[in-house]
Amino acid sequence: MQLNDSLIRYDRDVLLKMRGLYKERSQNVNLLNKRLMRFTMFVVVCGLLAAMALQTGSTAIAAPQTEGIAIQTSVGYQGTVNQNEWYPVRFKLINQTGEDVKGELVLTAVSSMSNTSVDYVASAELPMNTEVELTIPVPGDSLSKNTSKIRFFNNSIKDGKTIPIIGNDYIETRVSSSYTIGVISRDPDTLNFMPSLNQRGYDITVIPIVEDELPREGILLETLNTIVINDMATSNWKPEQVNAIKDWVIQGGTLVLSGGAGYSKTSQAFQEIAPVTAGGTTELTSTTALTSYSGTALENADSITVSTGQLNEAQSLLEENGTELAASRKVGLGTVIYVAFDPSLAPLATWAGSASLWSKLLQGSLSPLTQGMVNVSDNMFWEYSNLIDQFPSVKAPEFLLLLVMFVIYMIIVAPVLYIILAKSDRREWAWWLIPSVSIVTGVIIFYFGAADKREMNAHTIEIVELTGQGDAVKSGATGIFVPNGGNMKLAYDEERHMIPYPSDNQTSMGGNLALNNNTQLQIAEGSSSVLWRSVPYWSTRKTLLDKQTIRNEAGQLELAYSNTNGRVEVKVTNKTASDLTSVSLIMNGSVQRIGDLKIGESGTVALPSTANSQLGYYPYGDMVFPVTSGYNGTDIEYSRERELVNMYMNRNNSGLAMGSPLIVGFSIDHDPHYKVNGDKVKADNLTMWVQQLGEVTLAGNRIQVPVGIIQPIITDNGLQRMDHYGNGMIGVGSGELQFEYTVPNAKGVKYDKLEISYNSQYASANGVWSIWNEVSQQWEDATMLASDVAEYMVNEQSIRMKLTVTSDMETALPQIALEGVTISK
User: How many distinct structural domains can be found in the chain?
Assistant: First the structure.
């Protein structure tokens, strides 16, 4: 028992010791774990503190960045640009590197048209701590931090060594689809009443512009539809700025010169194109003309100071007791308007009729039917791309030639070679002789098949829009066929604004910014170039050639009208610098052939006696060059001309608006227009020459205003809705819509014939057309016109119509044609 008790006590003691040891060990483990946790937390906290310190340190390093090129930018006009229309990006650069720098400023931007990143390059010399201003022209796009990048390369972009940028290294743009009026005036609020017209279906934006913002190139004013210069001295403006505005007008812009007593100083720099030669001033005590022209009474106007002068190749728009208040002059494809008063001064600045008055003054370019939708440029970017691919000098090999070579090869390899080897008892030679013959034959077939692909070829297609005054606007596209690949530089000895087309190795997927320097565009004074890098062999590179003004060198198609047996005929004399082929009159959905006209030769054609009111796509190209027996032989020869006519006549609107009557002709030459890698290349050039017949055609003392010339002006919109589907097409809800047609030269012509053409495609019982009879002071059915046109002349200057809608419908406003005789003075 004692032994057992001793064993029990021993075991108990052992257990107690073991428990103690376990407890002690557990305490040690817990202590160790706590220490490990504390150490881990210490390490984590230290890491976080270190990271924060590093981040704070990096911020501290980046924030005081002072070595580099400090840049400030301004974009377009008040930050506004129009889609695909060129605008200036202005840079102010200060060199803060501590030494003089010479290099290239590069703006990389993603083009929404091609989904391609293009480098716009400008050379720059930057002395230390001296502000230098540069301008880079860019076609309009919505750009941001993700789609644009500014870099400065020491020496050149080719070296790839950049200098840090201080400031934003990107640009931001605001794309507008509005009709934009740029105002250069001592009062920046001039014409701020114009957006009130937006309630009638217009979409107008007015932007104040300062003289320093004016570019030296007319194409950079494309964001602006109208420029108003009011009471501003222009005599000290830079000549290149004045020339830019003149070029912009020739390209189709509308320039307004006004200022009342300040008109003489406003028109000083533009005397060459001003509608009125400045004289003195007078006080206008009667406002009857302003009231009738606008439709709104001008009250509490004791006197208004207006300028006086002599008309200069201009048409009177508005006069009061012999004083010209407004006049219009056609300059190139655009218009210059004279306004005798200052619209920024009372009582005109606050007059309720000012907006209506100006809507009529700007009727040639301002139309509500082209607004309310995304602005689409008429540069025909993708249409030209398809045409340029049709290289005349790069042809597919003749099928018959390849077939004959293949038959000869089969004869040589099979019977001939077999017989020779059999007779010479050298059949074992077949294993190397047949492959050798195959290789030699393949080389021969390749040599003859690639005959047109062994040298570089250039293909240019252009449209020259003649103004009838010796000036012209040229645009188009060009392509280069590259046989060997490598880097290709296309260089003009003149300023051409180019928009490169995408290629397989340079497209930015999804419009992402790519800084690979594959496409570089540089436009400098007197020269321009585009550089493509890493071009594969047997490939093409293409670029659009945007608008270029040709002054006093393009010539014209001289037009003379006569009345023969009751029909109006036009005699067309070629006074351009090129022989023209297939000259034709395109008018009212029809084509009248004139023939080939060499320089100095003439041809005559009768104008269509009826108007075609059917809107839609017209295959004018097939009318000018009829397809006689399928697209073969002669038909293939004119495939480019057909496509060129069709795309020009139906551009933008799928033929939804009847175009102005015009003459077209063609010329082909092979003169190199530019150099590629410093050398002239073989060239194929096709040019289409275009000239409008003009607003009014004369036949003796007979006047004719063709369909499509006069655009309507909406004067009152009482519709529940008016949606714009395209150029000319609208969807309307119930209500009334009033609109007017301002008659050209109403005071110099007695009109005796009025025709109204409706779009029969969209005829609907839901709409009724009415015309205002000024004599009876009542609305009449517009389909039942009186014989006396004078009854419909409102204030002897316009024709007023109304659309009454009972329920939703789609339609287009009517088109009118007029005839009359000149009034002898």
Answer: 6
